[in-house]
Amino acid sequence: MSDDGRNGGYGRNSGMSGNGADGDRDDDLVLGQEAVHDDEFGDGMLEEELRQAATILDPVPDELRQLALEAFALHDLDARIAELTFDSLIDAIPVRGAVDVPRMLTFQAGELTVDVEVTGDGLMGQVLPPQPARIEVLSGPQPGAPLMADALGRFTGDVPPGGPFALRLRAGGEVVVTEWLRA
Question: CA distances (Å), 148 to each of 12, 128, 154, 183, in order?
Fold first, then answer.
């Protein structure tokens, strides 16, 4: 095969020596560097070796794996997701000198709104439009004590959520789950 000038003088007969002993260019030589071919790694062998190294050097903690399985088991296929529309950590204007201020959250799913105040003593909130509801605080493998919203939609809980949490509301025949947040 002759060099027709299109490859910048790196053709097979250009006289440029690659890794071959006879002076011919090796197909792996690209601008002075050897190209890496997938077949050298045995079709995914590198990926498998990296996966094994990650398993050994940085394993997923058993508690986290169990939490993930239980969070998936808690998933309600028919539940509507209540979107976070207000978070006082992000949206509120800080007040000078105020310490230990409660975190205010507002979730919305269609016409249903849930206002929640999270403090070090627990949480309290209201379902709007006002209606009775059963509320569960999802925060880990053990389900929290269910909270009951009264006819005005008000509810309170004495235990502050620790770590990531979400609320599951059962009101008027529908199930609504809030987004997960860190307390």
Answer: 81, 14, 8, 21
* Helices (runs of H) and strands (runs of E) counted in the chain: 3, 12
Beta carbons of 123 and 109 less than 8 angstroms apart? no
Q: Are 2 and 14 in contact (CB under 8 A)?
A: no
Please give the DSSP secondary-structure letter assigned to residue 39.
Answer: G
Q: How far apart are CA 155 and CA 150, in angstroms?
A: 7
d(CA 13, CA 22): 11
Max CA-CA distance within the chain? 91
Task: Give the CA radius of gyration of the chain.
Answer: 30
Per-residue pLDDT of the chain (183 residues), as tens digits, is: 444 444 444 444 444 444 444 445 444 445 555 555 555 556 678 888 888 888 899 888 888 887 776 666 666 667 888 999 999 988 877 777 767 788 999 999 999 999 999 998 899 999 999 999 999 998 876 667 789 999 999 999 998 887 888 899 998 888 998 988 887
For the full predicted model, state whether its pTM sits above 0.90: no
